[in-house]
Amino acid sequence: MKKIVLMGDPNVGKSVLFSRLTGVDVITSNYPGTTVDYSKGRLNLHGKTATIIDAPGTYSLETNNKAEQVAVSLLDKADVILNVIDATNLERCLLLTLELLQRRQPVIVALNMWDEAQHLGIKINTVDLERILGVPVITTVAITGEGLKELVQRLDEARISDRQKPAGEDAAWAEIGHIVRQVQAMEHRHHSFKDWLEDATVKPGTGWMMALVILSAVFGLVRVIGEGIIRYLVEPLFNLCRAPLMALGALLGEGFLRDVLIGKLIDGQIDFVQSMGILTTGLFVPFGMVLPYIIAFYLVLSLLEDSGYLPRLATIADTVFHRLGMHGHGILTVLLGLGCNVSGVLAARTLETKKQRFIAATLVAVSVPCMAQTAMIFGVLGRFGAGYILLVFGTLVVVYVLLGLVLNKTVRGECPEIFLDIPPYRWPSAPAVAKKTWMRVRWFLIEAVPFLFLGVLAIVVLDALGVIRWLALLTAPFTKWWLGLPGEAVPALLAGFLRKDLAVGMLFPLGLSPEQLTIAVTVLTFYFPCVATFAVLFKELRSRDMAWAIAIMVLTALGVGGLLNLILIRI
Questions:
Q1: Pairwise CA distance, residues 296 & 374, whole Å
Q2: Contact at 8 Å (CB) between 100 and 81?
Q3: Of the candidates 60, 80, 79, which has an alpha carbon nearest to the alpha carbon of residue 71?
Q4: What is the pTM of this model?
Q5: What distance in Å separates the CA atoms of residue 309 and residue 311, rounded to the nearest whole number?
Q6: How far apart are CA 197 and CA 200, in angstroms?
Q7: Buried b (16+ CB within 10 A) or exposed e, 416-454
Q8: Contact 41, 130 (CB under 8 A)
Q9: Nearest alpha carbon to residue 107 among 62, 157, 163
Q10: Residue 258's pLDDT band (cuts 50, 70, 90)
Q11: Is there a contact between 536 and 365 (Cβ–Cβ < 8 Å)?
Q12: Which of 25, 61, 191, 286 is most buried by a 10 A CB count?
């Protein structure tokens, strides 16, 4: 089976091109001996199946980090190298192209972002470029699919170039300059609103103000979309199920089976949040309270990704995150962690050093609530006003910063500078955004919903057997004295290891005061992550670093919980 390896600089649209060529169903694997991902898919090439591998982005075959090492290693398996070039940054990308041509392997070049180059007044003579490089050159627009048909048709034309190797790096850059002068021309164009916007969102002075506006709008949009789905779609659907469930409960009668399936009746009626049954709370929490916000968050995140804003956000955040032991890419772990902590921890792989990865993963697990948990926090505290919600998230931000400052001073290792290319702004493609959103939502349905469902089942069974009451009595003195919480809150704390959003939902029936609820949801965020995140943390950090991360989580949760109790309740 023919193997085609996609190689290119970061931010050249390589992964979008890969998605276009292979479709949605792809395999993501760790390269042996590393935690670096690469994606693999299949393409029907002239009636035969070919394997396409999306290698991590790299600027050169002279490697500086694990991701670049993996990219170079994947070349040894390639029958064809598909080199993806950003047409708006031809000079920068040609260094990697010349290095690939020297490997004496068949190469074909995709000159991507062709539409952006035209908008910028960049004219490239592709016929001359193909003649100079000695390999086929095809113009593409990965987002819209333009040029892909020709690219696939000409994959078999990939060939080994007969170009001579430049004598040193200076000679290579001189040759690149000579090539660019022959094939590229620039036309004058006036500074547009888009140009002004690109400058304003990346400069330190205006960048932070724009970031606050954009992120506030983002999370406001997430809330509006999520609440709209719940109000106009989810709640009406669940209300239709109320009568059949009541009939089933009457048929079962009182006892263990009804308690497990339906749960307890609240004022003689089913309450999908408080009843705590498999067919009530077990279904309503994941599908009625969590999934709408998951859909909304991933939809908005895909819009940010495809518009080109995220690299600008990383650039303006670089100075702050350097003080926390990371660089600007650290903010991407926060954004992805707000969707799902598993994604946030995995995003730490993009950081170069062990110190950066440890700090980023630990901070995400400790003080970044996933969207499912954020939805539950809004649901629990929203009825008491925005003040308590702001207190929870303000505490999370303060702890994230303070803990990052401490870890930066105490964890050994380096924090190198960020070298990031900023792509131009572009309109997101509706089909591409829809596909990304569906892939992420599907992951949530497959990977997270079963834990939610099993979590409800485990808690319901343990409660029916009296185990939860026994644990509550055992730990009540400590939780009441130190955290200001009754022993009945212990089941929620235990459930937090299975799914934190489920645990927050279990606080509803306890009749806690707003202050107690604030302490409880804050502690739930700080202490052990859900079991899925816990498993990924262990895989990424290994046993020793994982032990340190656990100690940090426990100390932070107990310390902040006790401090909030002192401020909100005891005083």
A1: 12
A2: yes
A3: 60
A4: 0.59
A5: 6
A6: 5
A7: eebeebbbbebebbeebbebbbeebbeebeeebbebbbb
A8: no
A9: 157
A10: confident
A11: no
A12: 286
User: Where does residue 309 rank: exposed (0-12), middle (13-18), buried (19+ CB within 10 A)?
Assistant: buried
Average confidence score pLDDT of the chain: 80
Q: How many angstroms separate the Cα of 392 from the Cα of each of 192, 221, 395, 398, 402?
A: 42, 20, 5, 10, 16
Q: Using the structure block, give the residue that is written with the tokens 């276009």.
A: 20
153-162 pLDDT, tens digit each:
898 899 988 8
Tokens 């500078």 correspond to 417
Which residue has 């290698």 as its token pair? 55
For residue 40, the one-letter residue type is K
DSSP letter for each residue of 175-200: HHHHHHHHHEEE------HHHHHHHH
Give the residue from 326, 304, 293, 297 showing the smallest Cα distance to 413.
326
Task: Indicate the DSSP class of residue 108.
Answer: E
How do 80-86 and 107-112 pair as beta strands? parallel
* Encoded amino acid at 263, one letter: G
Q: Which two tokens stand for residue 117?
A: 């180059």
Q: Is the pLDDT of residue 84 over 90?
A: yes
For residue 153, the one-letter residue type is Q
Would you state the pLDDT for residue 215? Answer: 80
* Contact criterion met (CB below 8 Å) for 491 and 476: no
- The label of the residue with tokens 């959103």 reads 437
Q: What are phi and psi of 122, to 5 degrees?
A: -95, 125
Nearest to 280 by CA among 252, 320, 311: 252
Copy the structure tokens of residue 189: 């164009």
Nearest to 109 by CA among 119, 94, 92: 94
Contact criterion met (CB below 8 Å) for 464 and 260: yes
Q: How far is CA 554 from CA 307, 385, 524, in A?
A: 39, 29, 11
Q: Is the pLDDT of residue 24 over 60?
A: no
Residue 60 phi, psi (nearest 5)? -155, 160
- Residues 452 and 282: their CA atoms lie apart, in Å, by 7
Question: Strands (DSSP E) along 175-290, which ranges?
Answer: 184-186
